[in-house]
Amino acid sequence: MANTTSKQWILSDRTTSLPTISGPKPTFTLSTAELPPLQEGQLLVQVRYFSNDAGIRTFISCTVDQERMYVPPVPIGAPMRAGLLGEVLESKSPDFKSGDFVFAGSGSWAEKIVVNAADVQLTPPLPSGLSMTHYLGAFGGTGLTAHVGLLHVAQAKPEHTIVVSAAAGATGSMVVQVAVKLLGAKRVVGIAGGPEKCAWVRDYLGAHACVDYKSPTFKEDLKAATPDEVDIFFDNVGGPVLDGVLARMKRYGVVAVCGSVATYSSDEPMALRNWFEIVSQRLTLKGFFIFDHMDKVPEAREALIKAAAEGRIKVDIEQVVPAKIEEVPNVWIDVLKGVNKGKSVTKLIA
Ligand SMILES: NC(=O)c1ccc[n+]([C@@H]2O[C@H](COP(=O)([O-])OP(=O)(O)OC[C@H]3O[C@@H](n4cnc5c(N)ncnc54)[C@H](OP(=O)(O)O)[C@@H]3O)[C@@H](O)[C@H]2O)c1
User: Topology of 5-136+318-348 in CATH?
Assistant: First the structure.
């Protein structure tokens, strides 16, 4: 192997607040690692793009006991785990050659990684000149979660009123589009932070309405936006937003619990004033994880790629941020702060 070292970000603290790379207790520290020699069946991969997923926050700290986590947390002292797209530099696998582009769902924040060929997937060129970065967003974890979560887990139907939180984020922006443009749902209402994001969810993504959860009139605005109440709530955030929507759910409605980003960087217990709505309205809460529905993924990916190639859904809703390895955690932390509209991707530059 030519250059055998790589800078990488190590998890150094299980903060329960917003992660940081500075101060007395940084969450991550940068180190330089000697890469192990390639074994049979392994690849040396140069990272090109990182996927900035809100969900990897739960690999650092979470209220769920470590042994009960859906995916094991990252050990202290280990490289921070992240999905990525990379280029094969060297291959000791008959299935890959140098120059191939691959997706690694359990990669790490590093310049180069050594991976087992069995743990990555080839990312063939997409039709209509669509960027391969969409393998991280619209046709990757977030887009697939939106499609499978809405149509299969929540069983959304055209006659439904559907509400989605973090509607301007990577997952939510795809839920809105699948609901409006692929399902043709009767009414689709986004919830997002601030008037500018809400205007984008309505005017660009096509939601019938969008409600600003940061507004003091959130409760009244949500009521006005859901005159027939809510059949399906696709929830990405939990907290006060979930509490507000519970009070608008229709009898026998379904809450598809995708994530709870409002709780990821907080020690506070999640307060739900409207919990009894679940009893009163006979609601169903369906927590789900996309990895349990892998049988639905090929069909969902094909449908999303076809819809994008035909211009029925918009996938130019990604923010590709060029950054050196030194800046990689901060670009991801921006997602937790809500800086992104659509999918956030880091383009690793030298
Ligand atoms: N279950 C699964 O299989 C699965 C798979 C993928 C993702 N997820 C989950 O899906 C959710 C979205 O992930 P993503 O990667 O697509 O991230 P994202 O939506 O692109 O980014 C997170 C968004 O959350 C919003 N947010 C942050 N703090 C908030 C708060 N306190 N209250 C309300 N909204 C807040 C921000 O938007 P605003 O500016 O609008 O606040 C931010 O843009 C996460 O909960 C993640 O864990 C689950």
Answer: Quinone Oxidoreductase; Chain A, domain 1 (3.90.180)
